[in-house]
Amino acid sequence: MLEANGLMVFYENMLALNNVSIKCEDKQIVGVFGANSAGKSTLMYTLSGIMEDIRKKEDMAGGERITVMGQILYLGRDITDLKPSKRAKAGIVLCPERRRIFPECNVIENLRIGAYLASPSQAKDTLEYVFMVYPALEKLEKRVGGFLSGGEQQMLAIGRALMAQPKLLLLDEPLLGLSPLIQSIMVKSTKEIRDEKGLSIIVTEQYARPVLPIVDYAFVLENGAAVLEGTRDELLNNPDVRSAYFGV
Ligand code: ATP
Question: From 50's CA, which of 29, 101, 173, 237 has a CA 20 to 30 Å away?
Fold first, then answer.
């Protein structure tokens, strides 16, 4: 489904991704785990192509020079130079860190904004689906985004991403700042979405433990480099890995 080879990202002289290669097969959930500043968001921006927009903005503002190298293959096609909007159209949809919902728009409006790539019938069906996965959101239809709790905002952010008809959903730290109870709801719903919609999902998290049960394969990033990878069972069955990275 997606294969990234030798990704290198420099913010000026600072190496944020160091020769990272990752893979996500069809209908897999792939975890990318790493501490603060390990490079998780940089990876997600690079895969979604948004890094290209950030790079252009920096160029225009005379800011720092951002350099991106490596190759990204998606559904058998080289998308390394494809614009983020075209990647979204092809099904790569990013649900960014810290949700980034529109705080002045209500729940329905936020979801409709996500449907810009969907046909009216897809939008209608997906809206019903989002409310089925997150019934709490339906009750809050008219509430503005800024007045939702963190968990509700995260549901809305994932719902909005689903409205864009993803084939590959990129979830950047979806559990950030949520209570353990809400975290477990989000983890369960992520698996449900994969199973029911047949999507592929790449999910980043600082702590692997809550997400590990639902991933098929995972990578560990350290200072921008992928230092470890394996199936869930391979990682869980390695005692050194378990204690060093997963706290289990
Ligand atoms: P977090 O959990 O804090 O979100 P992360 O794993 O997502 O961390 P990144 O946000 O990808 O990490 O950052 C990787 C490194 O690149 C960090 O050292 C960060 O300070 C740096 N960095 C990120 N964005 C920029 C930028 N626009 N300009 C300069 N340095 C940046």
Answer: 29
By most ligand atoms within 8 Å of CB, the mutation choice from 8, 18, 37 for ligand 1 is 37
- Predicted TM-score (pTM) of this structure: 0.95
Whether residue 205 contacts residue 175, with contact meaning beta carbons closer than 8 Å, is answered with yes
Q: Summarize pLDDT for 71-122 with one digit per residue, the tens.
A: 999 999 999 999 999 999 999 999 998 889 999 999 999 999 999 889 999 9
How many domains would you assign to the chain? 1
* Cα gap 4→107, rounded to integer Å: 34
Instruction: Specify the ligand 1 atom closest to the Cα of 12.
Output: 29
Range of the domain at 124: 98-165
113 within domain boundaries:
yes
Ligand 1: residues with CB < 6 A are 11, 14, 16, 34, 36-42, 64, 97, 206
